[in-house]
Amino acid sequence: MNIFWTIVFWCSVALYAAHPKTFTSLAKSYEHDLQTIEVYKKNRYFKPYYSFFDAYQEQVESCFALGFLLDRAIENSNDTAAQKSAYLGALRALEKEQNVLQTLYVDTVHEAISQRNIPLFTLLLNHPMAPLQQERLRQEVLRFYALIRSKHRIAAAEALLQEQRLDAYSRQVATEEQQAYEEHLRVLTASQAKKIRHSGVRNRRNSVLVSTKNVGSDIEFYAHNRNAFAVTMTLTLKQLKNCKTNRRLPLYIELGAHSNKKVLRLKRIDAAKPAHYESRYGWVMGLASAEHDANYRYLLPFQAGKKVRVSQGFNGRTSHNGYSRYAVDFAVPVGTPVYAARGGVVVAVRASGSKGALKRGYGKYANYIVIEHSDGTLGKYYHLKKRGVRVRVGSQVRAGELIGYSGNTGYTSGPHLHFSVSKVDPKYKQRPITLPFQLQTAQGVVTTIKRGDRFMR
């Protein structure tokens, strides 16, 4: 390496910890590559690539130093146009070389598998240079590992196997979340809706009713929410003939708990001719308009003094991604007391489920408690034990109050408590989304929760 860049690099390393800067940090993201290359250079298989490795290391370190010098120039209010251009150019060139390095890694994995070179295969898995989460590469690695697993256990491959099992769990959880939206429901006449209400029978398919009423030559639509929680409803009309609506379609409506209101008027264009339309509606628990209090500090939902481990946190690779990215799984034994993380009104419970397994269709056995908070968001506590609910719908609970006991019911990979704060997606108003929240713990306020964290209230 050029002596000048070597001196600048190590000086910048010494100063970096105390004064982290923007451009320095951009190049620092390549530091993992440097560490991995040092491991590869100890293996004779990579001897033909030593010169490439050296050049790449020099490129990373010089780019790191350029970033440091650029940050210093900005800090001293110097003209940085030329330095910035040179630095960004170096960063782009470095990105291209990293792609070459990752391609080399993937090719080497293929070769290790084809040659059944287990020592090399083990090295590559324990020190990856490219994301092993790429579907095709991961599947190839796991197929080969299945052949050698009885004699050769590799920690990194075991972790991939566990992730694969949890991926199946993720897909099922995502499916169940989508099924939280009741769709393709038929609009009823006023007399049909009245009959259902008077029957006293209530299930998810009829707990939100939409009915019509003739008013002169026009038709009015009424929505009735029979649930103890607010819902966001979608009403769709198609194939309209000789009629027009007084509101834009599709219509998104929020209905409070146990509410009934007129939501739409269909006006006949020619009163002497019949009107024709096709109508359907659907709904999902919660409000799209809920404004989460981002400054609220949620309690750890366990008793004071008990330390718990996070088995899956925010943006987990299993089921906590996409619109479920801010849920948290706490690995706790069946029967662990669960306390309200935030006060509110209990709007939904289930305690009769007795089954739990990582099998399709088991989601319907999950026991849960849903609490509506003062800002309209919902706190959801899932996988509770059978008869492990200690509150009723309509109960007002305080933060820190005992509400139930954890379990292993529903579609679950093991005993744990699943907790999330949610509302209805304001963009796509037919599904719930989880929200980021702050967690008050004995260690302080936590805003990013990740797998392996251990907390105590």
Brief descriptors of the model:
457 residues; alpha+beta; Immunoglobulin-like; Glucose Permease (Domain IIA); 3 domains; eleven-stranded antiparallel beta sheet; five-stranded mixed beta sheet; 9 helices; globular
Structural class: alpha+beta
Number of helices: 9
Query: How would a textbook summarize the main sheet?
Result: 11 strands, antiparallel
Binned, the helix content reads 25-40%
Give a structural overview.
This protein is of the alpha+beta class. It has three domains: about 5-175, no CATH class; about 185-285, Immunoglobulin-like (Sandwich), CATH 2.60.40; about 295-455, Distorted Sandwich (Glucose Permease (Domain IIA)). Helices cover about 30% and strands about 30% of the residues. The protein contains nine helices and 25 strands. Strands 11, 12, 13, 14, 16, 17, 18, 19, 21, 22 and 25 form an eleven-stranded antiparallel sheet that branches. Strands 2-3-4-8-6 form a five-stranded mixed sheet. It has a four-stranded antiparallel sheet with strand order 1-9-5-7, with no helix packed on it. Strand 21 (about 415-425) and strand 22 form a beta hairpin. It is globular. The chain starts with a helix and ends with a strand.
